Amino acid sequence: MANQDLRVGIIGVGMMGADHAERVVHRTAGARLVAVSDPDTARAEALAAGFDGVRTITDPLALIADDEVDAVIIASPGFVHEEQVSACLERGKFALCEKPLTMDAESALRLVEAEARLERPLIQVGFMRRFDPEYAAMKELLDGGELGRTLVVHNVHRNKAVPPSFRSEMIVRDSLVHEVDVCRWLFGEEIDEITVLAPAPTSAAAEGVLDPQVAIFRMAGGGMATTEVFVNCQVGYEVRCEAVAERGNVTIGLGQSVFVRQDGRYGGDVPDDFRSRFGRAYDLELQAWADATRRGEVVGPTAWDGYAASAVCEAGMESLASGRPVTVGLVDRASVVGATR
Amino acid sequence: MANQDLRVGIIGVGMMGADHAERVVHRTAGARLVAVSDPDTARAEALAAGFDGVRTITDPLALIADDEVDAVIIASPGFVHEEQVSACLERGKFALCEKPLTMDAESALRLVEAEARLERPLIQVGFMRRFDPEYAAMKELLDGGELGRTLVVHNVHRNKAVPPSFRSEMIVRDSLVHEVDVCRWLFGEEIDEITVLAPAPTSAAAEGVLDPQVAIFRMAGGGMATTEVFVNCQVGYEVRCEAVAERGNVTIGLGQSVFVRQDGRYGGDVPDDFRSRFGRAYDLELQAWADATRRGEVVGPTAWDGYAASAVCEAGMESLASGRPVTVGLVDRASVVGATR
Amino acid sequence: MANQDLRVGIIGVGMMGADHAERVVHRTAGARLVAVSDPDTARAEALAAGFDGVRTITDPLALIADDEVDAVIIASPGFVHEEQVSACLERGKFALCEKPLTMDAESALRLVEAEARLERPLIQVGFMRRFDPEYAAMKELLDGGELGRTLVVHNVHRNKAVPPSFRSEMIVRDSLVHEVDVCRWLFGEEIDEITVLAPAPTSAAAEGVLDPQVAIFRMAGGGMATTEVFVNCQVGYEVRCEAVAERGNVTIGLGQSVFVRQDGRYGGDVPDDFRSRFGRAYDLELQAWADATRRGEVVGPTAWDGYAASAVCEAGMESLASGRPVTVGLVDRASVVGATR
Amino acid sequence: MANQDLRVGIIGVGMMGADHAERVVHRTAGARLVAVSDPDTARAEALAAGFDGVRTITDPLALIADDEVDAVIIASPGFVHEEQVSACLERGKFALCEKPLTMDAESALRLVEAEARLERPLIQVGFMRRFDPEYAAMKELLDGGELGRTLVVHNVHRNKAVPPSFRSEMIVRDSLVHEVDVCRWLFGEEIDEITVLAPAPTSAAAEGVLDPQVAIFRMAGGGMATTEVFVNCQVGYEVRCEAVAERGNVTIGLGQSVFVRQDGRYGGDVPDDFRSRFGRAYDLELQAWADATRRGEVVGPTAWDGYAASAVCEAGMESLASGRPVTVGLVDRASVVGATR
Which helix (H) or strand (E) holds C60? Predict the structure, then answer.
């Protein structure tokens, strides 16, 4: 397949899927969009009409099975992920599945087990921060060893505002999940224990919603991480990360590229949302996924990463309810995926 | 007294006391150093000889009692503070007492009670960060109300290295105590509960020393604070603070004044120790203390602040040992110092 | 052509051409590398062997004439540009020509005239800074009008070091030429007058080389620009630009994405060379060129921009020799390319 | 005198003189304000009434002659400086004279000559930037030699707005004069040649006023400096300086101490005027002046510095009128002040 363009199908063409369609067509080398699927057929057709040679296939499982489709991007709602990822595994199709992998750790584990029975891994989970140039540089610096062992990581993750329907647990499951993946990846270790604390909420949050929240992770190797998640911060989309190692520390997300002085103030723009902040990361994620897929490999976050993140978030939601530390009970990785993967 | 210079005596002329002597003589308007006292008489005499008209008085209580001394700076070791502060209260002498006010919350409370029986307060405790221009600007901004209520505060407090004799509890008592005061002051509330957690320690720490540590404060009004204290960070002296409010956030301590590009790197110096970082804060603290004392007032951190900080740190040391949240049991303030002070 | 991949040929596979080959193959959507040409046949073959389906064509004019080649990237030495660009114009092939367009303003003007006789423009000149996200954001901000008219632009352009063969005039022709284009583009006006001044040279420069240099541009509309070019600055590759407008100013190039504190210093890396600083700009330039070419358009810097830059640099070299302001005598644009282009 | 407070008289209690009065009384150790003088007697009396023990003396020459006055701060309008400084020299009184030293280079030179005939220097000129911690750190770094010889200096000097009465030449004489002193001091060399250029003016400037202006200095040792002065920049008070040396460069004035994120923007305040930006520099200047005066020395900018700055500004105003470089014709320093001073 390496000599030919990768033929991509996309399931779900809401905001995220439509973005990915643009990405595949206009910003990814060696990939071609051939089919899209969405329960909202009109939406799928409107999107397909904007490109050359893109078919709509109503049934997502038919898209997965389609001979012309080499690989699938799953951007549908989380509750259909398990079925769609399973279908990809059955058909031997590579898939990039947006997070969450599934709706709970148990079902995610079933996918991990199913994939483990195959000859090679097929699933990449859409934790795109690993492809952000700043996070990637930080990881490289930490892995380089010059700063010594990583001891503590501090994260800040803030959204300008969320709809009133956004509930307290979604802060853990949909927002904090990114830091769960980031910390697992930066430390190269699982999270053993999570505590999620809630200070008195902002008046900008809907009645009863605990926002902001402060989470503490204890890593398997003894490291620790703090994360503030604040989804109604009013300012903009702020994501920062500081890793503190034995001989120095690294911070990303200070974001000072275009510096304006005006009206008695210096500074610049805080991005409005994750698409402007991480647009480049998504582009790089897709290019890396297309490149790896053409080589028959998975290089990004794996199904295991999707499972582990779910398990940590479930423990986090329990901690948010109880206010106490909760142990994360992951199954033994080697016994599921084997020692060599 | 307002028309005349304030005549100052200093007890203890180690590093801190000697610095204060320089400050009084060379950088404080309206103050005059008249006497110093130190158990190491030679050291006191050497210091006195460097200035004009400064006597040495061997007995610190005699210095406090001396008619020529209007006000006293107590820079002696903590275990003699209670006796010396008591003497100041008895003699009606204003005093600036370096932290800790005393060695434990119980004795600190005795001083609070003794002062409360006087006509007016006399004691200021040396939490100099309140006088740092950056912290002061942050406090002013938060109090201005434009950003709304303060929800969360994040602190980082790192020293380059400490001697091997520095033990785990000292990280709470001697380092974290500054953030205890900062958070009480920024929120304008007491700390209700403290948790001190210890990640796997850096290899740069002495055997058995838990360094770094991560502390969580719950404020009386529901706010929350996180603090990383790391006394062997190898980099330099790093103190940063971010206050997150309902409509915006403020960060200080990023410290980019002189910006150098050299050898493939841009950046600047991280201060070596607290004296370079907070030298200006000490100068401003002393000027403010001298000015207020000449007016017969106390404007900085009070004896109560010294007591409350001790009580929080005691709870913090208990939490460090147990790994669990510990409630801070302060006595009722109004019942001790009255409602009007 | 819009429905199919753009088939690209590259002439010259030295450092720049080889980079472009990588870009076309691995980072450009909708483009395919089909042929390369280089006088060093072995180098061309080695490069072609690294990709699928790329032919080598020894004669660059044959590559241009090849039916399988839709568009050409000219990355050969400047002295063969005139012949190769002419051939593209004759064959009606779109071309992205690395700067300089030709070796002097006179020959560049001949290309402008030749292209003007065609039905549509075909030539884009490789001033890639216009595609750099920071420069692009600055341009957008200035054009948005909120800051008012641009009055003065300050540029800094520094290289770590150049080989001893790099002569004083090359600083004008090969380095300053980028700021010539940037200022023409930001102001949207021609440069009327240029002065190039030489302070006492750095000891790091080769004997007789005037490095650094300071250039002053007077724009046709009365604006002004200062530029420091310093090609042996020892630090790294530093490119900064500040535009001062009537109601505010914008600075780019401060570059603080990954922030490290280590060994008593805070800061980050200064890029080593233009490839790391402007790698992304090159990627975006190629994507935009491929997209526009498939639509039959030219959207980047034009042949006229190449001509005007040459004319300014010629005046600049004259000024460097004389130490005096030199007027830039451009031909009348409308009389050459017409009023509608 | 070293054992006693320096008794200071201030001539001129407009904004600057009143600020200095505050400084002497409340922020300068070892100094005492004893007398003030102002043609507006009511203003002088109102100010004196705000302090203890300050007399008003209507005649400034009487203040200078007064036995109780050890040293004089001259904050009167520039056109009376020559007479008042002369009186100080005659009476052997130390003086801190706000810039300009006098109204032209010729009269300034007469003061230099008069002072040279005395046993020791008495005059310090109020170029306070030398006492600003950032400028001082930059000077120390450059003098340290690690970065090699200084090659080029770039300055930016912007005011929010000036009254309509502010004319083009005042930009040179009252604003640019600070960079004249800064460059002479940083390079440790005289300015040999100055060019002052005027881009098309901002619409915020009064009719006929050339604002902004761009000045080029050629230093005696071959170094060069560029300075943009813009007195109606609308933003705030911006002063930045970058020194480019053979092995690195230093920038000051980026000013990021309190960092706020709010309303989609990150950043901080640009100071409103020179008093907030350089308030600390004035404090340090006065303390250093008081300390040196008590020791019988002059440590800051000298009468010669005042003369040289005037001479450069006169040449600058000539260049502004002609648009051409103008040579600065300083008298031979050694022949006037001797080789040993």
Answer: helix C60-65
